[in-house]
Amino acid sequence: MARAAATRTKRRSSGQTALDVLKSDHAEVKKLFKQFEKFKKSEDSEGMQQVAQAACKALSIHAQIEEEIFYPAFRECADADDALDEANVEHAHVKELVKQLQQAQPGEDLYEARFKVLSEYVQHHAEEEESTIFSKARKSDVDLVALGEQLLARKEELAAGQEPADIAALAAREQTRKRDGQSVRGHRS
Ligand SMILES: [Fe+2]
Ligand SMILES: [Fe+2]
């Protein structure tokens, strides 16, 4: 109860649990990984870079809210020490790849390889989180809705301090890629 009271905030409730918030982040980056592959196929370096930068920003914020809020909430009450230690080690690797990608551009040595490894690594990490840590979280007495509110509030705060990813520009580029792909196929037939 004390933990639930401590994690309650005055922010308007979204009703999302911490697990909903984190799962939707996982789904968002998986979508960006797929989008990167499409731009790679059409050899659109600018598109690849926009997607990679958006994924790097999303992953940095996601890792930070997990480390600051989500993981500590289960340290003492969910018998999750080993899983949380592994997750922290995986985050360190993810952050190193993110840093390397943020300082590089498509076409440079290892850029695409680093993004590929990042995407495989993150997908593995997210699956582990959703199976191991989330199931321990569900069995704990932590107020997951209050924790979800905390995660969302911190996420907003961190996103406000960063240049926003240009999702609209990405969507427009994706539309152009699809349209051009269709017209190329149209010409061929
Ligand atoms: Fe994580
Ligand atoms: Fe995660």
Helices and strands, in N-to-C order? HHHHHHH
Proportion in β-strands: under 5%
The CATH homology group name: nmb1532 protein domain like
Give the number of helices: 7
Distinct compounds present: fe (ii) ion
Structure description:
- With 189 residues, the chain is mainly α.
- It has a single domain (16-176), classed as Up-down Bundle (Four Helix Bundle (Hemerythrin (Met), subunit A)).
- It is built from seven helices and no strands.
- α3 runs antiparallel to α4 and α3 (45-75) packs across α6 (144-160).
- The longest helix is centred in the first third of the chain and has 31 residues, at 45-75.
- The site of one fe (ii) ion has 6 residues, from α3, α4 and α5.
Quick structural gist:
This protein is an all-alpha fold and 189 residues long. 80% of the residues lie in helices and 0% in strands. It has helices at 2-7, 18-41, 45-75, 81-102, 111-139, 144-160, 167-188.
Keywords:
mainly alpha, Four Helix Bundle (Hemerythrin (Met), subunit A), globular
Element layout with pairings:
Layout: H1 2-7, H2 18-41, H3 45-75, H4 81-102, H5 111-139, H6 144-160, H7 167-188
Helix pairs in contact: 2-3, 2-5, 2-6, 3-4, 3-6, 3-7, 4-5
